[in-house]
Design a protein that fits this description.
mainly alpha; 3 helices; about 60% helix; elongated
Length: about 90
Amino acid sequence: MYRSVLRMNDTCPVCGHTFEREQGFFQGAMYVSYVLASATFAVFALLAQFWLAPRIGQAAGFAVALAVHLPLVPQLWRYSRVVWAHLNVGTIQ
């Protein structure tokens, strides 16, 4: 689906499937991205709460969880578009 880190192909280079079937098609991927980002940050925050907070404090543990989560945001964005596209395969075009 992607030709570079942040650029999508308009169509599949193998089968010719058009990824963005209409203007704003990937707007629904925002909801998938929100769920993925919330879930991953919740896992990091819980791990930081149990493992790091007793050693370095709650605020520092939260900062570490945030620092680990932020580099993953572009990958979560890309993956949310892939999930959204797969959820809509086979729907009326």
